[in-house]
Write a structure and sequence with these properties.
single chain; alpha/beta; Rossmann fold; six-stranded mixed β-sheet; 13 helices; 6 strands; globular
Length: 299
Amino acid sequence: MLSTYKVASTPWRLGPFKARTHQLVFGQTYEDSAIELRAFKPRSRVFSIAGAGCTARALAAAGHYVTAVDINPRQLVYAESRAAGGSVRRGAAERLLALSRKLATVVGWSRLKLVEFLSLSDCAKQGEYWDRLLDTPIWRAAVDTLFAPRLLRLFYASPFVESLPQDFGAQIRRRLRSGWISHPNRSNPYATALLLGIPPADPGAAVCPIQFSCADAADFLENSPPAAFDAFAMSNIGDGAPLSYMQRLRTAMEHAAAPGAVVVSRTFAKSSPNSENNWAALDRSLLWGGVEVSNIAIG
């Protein structure tokens, strides 16, 4: 099946990891699809970066008409298999997270503590538990070391690392604490996925079948009919991409956007928390510096 897909030559051809080309990168999507479900009008025609397919499946189950596109053929085959009821697999991201969880036990994060923490539903108590038992000096030092640029470059391609804040470890710690005091753990499947590696429940069957395509996002949108899409779920496609590519992508989105089209895009970089377009505080997956929700200006 992989051989039926043509590999495009774009900034995303090699992916973010320093590993073999076209490996499975993500076994699940670390994005809260409730953002897209809230932002998009009912029964929208949605262009979605496929990734692990989680956002595409959530949108399709809610009645949206989804076209899921990914440049990585192995990633696309996996997303397509998940939409057909296939099992969850671990990608490169999950293997790194699994290693991080093993290291977390060294700094005192026992599974018992994490299960107790995730059972809480009072955000004030979650903040207190975090400050008292989990946010320890040794854990803070470990996170800052693991997310330092010099270490990230051992695993990630340079353009991706260069797009991240220099104090990325401190940023991640702040985002986590902000999430704990904002979202009840007991009803947050993304918190459980992050800390224990248990994937969120499947959103259910698609109302309309998802259309999958292996292509570069800009290529695909440039060749789409005008006004083909009412909404765009772009993940963090801008992290590590050169300005020239992002300008081309924006032009392609404007070409393919219907009037009033909405775009949701994420970034690990710092974004203004006070911007009315930044919904990062609402994203229960806890990791993003910016979750921008905006309309595409046409003409």
